[in-house]
Write a structure and sequence with these properties.
The protein folds into four domains: 66 residues, no CATH class; 75 residues, GMP Synthetase, Chain A, domain 3, CATH 3.30.300; 61 residues, no CATH class; 40 residues. 26% of the residues lie in helices and 28% in strands. It is built from seven helices and 13 strands. The strands form three sheets. Strands 1, 2, 3, 4, 5 and 6 form a six-stranded antiparallel beta sheet that branches. The radius of gyration is 27 Å and the shape is elongated.
Length: 266
């Protein structure tokens, strides 16, 4: 077991886990933590918990200290300055006619780096933009291109199911999701039904796809002519989760059968 504390950097953003070290951090505390980007200001969204080591990525970064009033003031200044930098950068993008959409800017807590995140359909040559921003703000500039799924993961929100987005709650990798998964599960191919908040296919389409595929192996196909218990007919409907199908005989009689775990028809 390892002691961890959950920290968020943006309202509604993803929770990251850190080692509390010798700090008595509790839910709601503002903290300064060490990250790959440098020092960051965040807020504890859990109390200190014991978690199995295989459930977190080791080694964990440390909570440096509980934030002071001066830390909070500096974080507020960083946030305000980052908003101004974002507006300035957007003006530069428009002036240089770059095919990219900036949507977020943030300083590391120590202001050693100013990070801009953007979405673009293709790779963008932003070298001149980076030079102009570095000359303006006298700090290291990082321009990070991310996908729409990554944006949804960081921002968070509610899915069509009414629950928080899976990507912002627990998904660490985006597995391939195909339209065939929706077809396999008999879901209407309506974009409003099968697309998530990011505009891409719902990640949850992959959750039960293996189950549907396995159950379908035990069921006949719609349109197939089969003989069951001495009755011959055409399969007109299947219910994958019930593992049942309807057979229409030559006498126009409809009969429903269920497939048992042993493969027998009932």
């Amino acid at each position: 077991m390892v002691k961890v504390i959950g920290i968020k950097f943006l309202t509604g953003g993803r929770t990251y886990y850190f080692s509390p070290g010798k700090n008595s951090v509790k839910l709601g505390d503002f903290v300064i933590v060490e990250t790959e980007k440098g020092l960051q200001f965040g807020q504890a969204v859990t109390n200190i918990e014991d978690i199995e080591e295989n459930n977190v990525f080791l080694p964990l970064k440390d909570v440096i200290r509980i934030a002071t009033k001066e830390d909070k003031n500096l974080n507020d200044k960083n946030s305000k300055d980052a908003l101004k930098a974002l507006k300035y950068a957007k003006d530069l993008v428009e002036t240089e006619n770059l095919d990219m959409k900036l949507y977020e800017a943030s300083y590391t807590f120590d202001r050693k780096k100013l990070i801009f995140k953007f979405i673009a359909d293709e790779r963008v040559d932003f070298r001149d933009l980076a030079k102009a921003l570095a000359a303006k703000y006298k700090t290291r500039i990082e321009l990070r291109q991310i996908g729409v799924r990554d944006k949804a993961k960081e921002i968070g929100g509610l899915g069509p199911c009414g629950r928080p987005l899976c990507c912002s709650e627990f998904l660490t990798n985006f597995n391939s999701v195909s339209i065939n998964m929706a077809k396999n599960q008999g879901i209407a191919l309506n974009p409003t039904k099968i697309n998530g908040s990011c505009g891409r296919l719902l990640c949850c389409l992959s959750y039960e796809d293996n189950v549907y595929s396995e159950y379908k192996k035990q069921l006949p196909k719609v349109g197939e002519t089969i003989t069951v218990n001495g009755k011959t007919g055409k399969v007109v409907e299947i219910n994958v989760l019930k593992k049942s199908y309807k057979l229409k005989t030559e006498e126009s009689e409809e009969m429903e059968f269920m497939v048992g775990n042993d493969g027998s028809n009932k």
